[in-house]
Design brief:
This protein is of the alpha+beta class and 228 residues long. Helix content is 17%, strand content 32%. The structure holds flavin mononucleotide.
Length: 228
Amino acid sequence: MSPPRGSDAPPGRPRARRSSRRIDLSTLSSENAERLLSSVVVPRPIAWISTISRSGCTNLAPHSYFSPVSSDPPTVMFVSTGMKDTLRNVLESGEFVVNSVEDSQLEMMLITSAELPGDEDEFAWAEVERTPSWYVRPPGVADSAVSLECRLLRTLRVGEATLVVGLVICAHVASEAIQASERIDLRELPVVGRVGPGAFTVVKQVIDRRRPRPGDLAALRYESDGPT
Ligand SMILES: Cc1cc2nc3c(=O)[nH]c(=O)nc-3n(C[C@H](O)[C@H](O)[C@H](O)COP(=O)(O)O)c2cc1C
């Protein structure tokens, strides 16, 4: 018999199939398509991106369409919807810094998402302390537990969106958040994720489970089918 739906279903086990509604995306406006997709891919980490304009003005703005891309070479990507100061600065200077956002930085991060003129220094506007970078001109956010110094590798236009891939030159990681194996310990770093417009979450629970190895498979099959 299928396990009951809801909280008493054993964790990690398939639940009974849900009833569902089919949504054909060609029938949706672009606003509704964005609403749907951005509420499906959640929570999204927030890249708080610092850049510098041709005239030397520093800019800071959150981008939650953000992900690692490859490890060799080490790259990350973010997406700009339309032409914004961040994208313009990256295209002109070829450089950006991705800073992490913790719960204590949420309000400042939101202030930097305001649409400001390109010549407004958003570090100053949001009273965010900056720290010089090692290899690139844009500064990092002094308080952020992680800052990734990046050089523009390539861009890809998809409709109104521009996907930006950056080569990660250097990472600055707060000592208390880094483990011996170069992993970030999220228990020490309450990072903010976006779950929708005006809605955020903080990683509070970490579940430690390793991936099955080939030798584990027989035991796993036995557990899910029961003894025969
Ligand atoms: C949490 C959060 C995440 C956001 N993610 C994105 C994103 O992924 N791409 C984007 O184009 N705009 C995103 N925005 C909106 C930009 O931050 C906003 O348009 C900002 O004004 C851009 O600043 P800029 O013109 O200085 O680059 C996000 C806003 C918030 C609050």
